[in-house]
């Protein structure tokens, strides 16, 4: 029986079919350069030979670091072609996490890419690890080898190292909100099954163009952009720097855009900063003007060509989805986790349902356990956690289904609705349990909020911590506060008394990866936020005011 083509097989085939067609588009100081399929394959084959020349034991782990860039893709494919195991590292990852991952997987080498904190990263590297510098200026780390000289000194590898479908290809370390990262083992079968299923569910429509900016160390970006580009033959344009996201997204105008709620919220805030909601609503009611305004906004933000706009990682507030819908931009929600290779459910064009994360992807078996937990079984589900048999056993049921840790329900048409985390609840001092996710999602209707986190441990009643976006910060405290309280009252009217938000605390600082309040995949670390503002919460817990400012 013939095995499905691997990502490396696809690269080599495109190098024959589209040798001179550009694949990867890399910006540097705002100027774009491209790498064709033929050039990419030549560099990958040469780097595969170079890696083997370093004398690394078979199946050694080789790490990839830095921001998304063309050579992240090429290095990943070279590692696979040479028979090694790739391990992605986030560009802004705590030093302790970098040290743990590299020691845990026993990485023998690391590709050094452009990153914001090279000195800190360099200090986290274990002694003796081989450092290979990608061909970008000012990497800030001394490397024993450089990409350009390595590929110039080695001949292209004739064919990929033979691997069985069950052989380990990559380790994807979960970013997690607590504890050490866990190494999710993804093998060849996991990859090819997910790739085939994605092609069935969301087939290519002509020449596809992707914009890569979410961390490639995460399974979502790796699968949705890197792997999909190889199976679809899609162009990939890389973001040079996070500060340039609005400009470069507009330049690229992708046909598929993958995002998280925080990014979508900031796109919305950027539009409303130039065109306030009240004025926008008025213009959208005018028959001819409405079409022109929609076109201008979509072109300005770079979403005029989008066929699929898929959001994941966290629930998208329904009001935010409705806002985009008014501009004729349909936000589709997908659901998945590293442990099932981000292959679970998705909503599709023409079959969207607000609030739902969609129906099961082709071949993905899904069930809801008696306690409400969502569980999956299919060939893309991980082989297990690296060097952790006990945790692997805990993550699977006795009959082999993956426990997601999420609670959900399925309607009569098979649409999945996530209702919260099995363990993401807190108990107030009244002894009542509260599930924060649905309440946070409901408060997402407020267009002044950038980030929010509901907390309640050691409190009589839940309190909502929020940071404001630029629009909110530009308003007077009285005006912004009135809007926040109005939405809080509306949400509270739908909640049980013990769930109701006692007050909103507006904090000064944004929560970022740098200050440890967000994971690299832009999820708020509830326990860290709660710890950071414990004194502030205690200060305001007993007051009856509905709103307070830090």
Secondary-structure blueprint of this entry?
Elements: H1 7-17, E1 22-28, E2 31-36, H2 37-53, E3 61-64, H3 70-81, E4 85-88, H4 95-104, E5 109-112, H5 118-124, E6 130-133, E7 145-146, H6 147-152, E8 168-173, E9 183-187, H7 188-201, E10 209-212, H8 219-232, E11 235-238, H9 245-252, E12 256-259, H10 261-274, H11 277-284, H12 287-301, E13 308-311, H13 318-326, E14 331-335, E15 345-346, E16 359-360, E17 365-368, E18 373-377, E19 384-385, H14 389-395, E20 402-410, E21 416-421, E22 426-427, E23 433-434, H15 436-443, E24 449-455, E25 463-468, H16 470-474, H17 477-492, E26 503-506, H18 526-532, H19 534-540, E27 547-549
Parallel strand pairs: 1-11, 3-4, 3-5, 4-8, 5-6, 6-7, 10-11, 12-13, 13-14, 25-26, 26-27
Antiparallel strand pairs: 1-2, 8-9, 9-19, 14-15, 15-16, 17-18, 18-20, 20-21, 22-23, 24-25
Helix pairs in contact: 1-2, 2-3, 4-5, 7-8
SS elements, strand count: 27
CATH superfamily of the largest domain, by name, is ANL, N-terminal domain
* Major sheet summary line: 8 strands, mixed
Number of structurally distinct domains = 3
Distance between the termini: 64 Å
The secondary-structure class comes to alpha/beta
CATH fold name of the largest domain: Rossmann fold
What would you report as the Rg, rounded to the nearest angstrom?
A: 24 Å
Highest CATH level, the class of the largest domain? Alpha Beta
**What strand line-up does the widest sheet have?**
7-6-5-3-4-8-9-19
Oligomer status:
single chain
Alpha plus pi helix count: 19
Shape: globular
Q: Strand percentage, roughly?
A: 15-25%
| Average pLDDT for all residues | 91
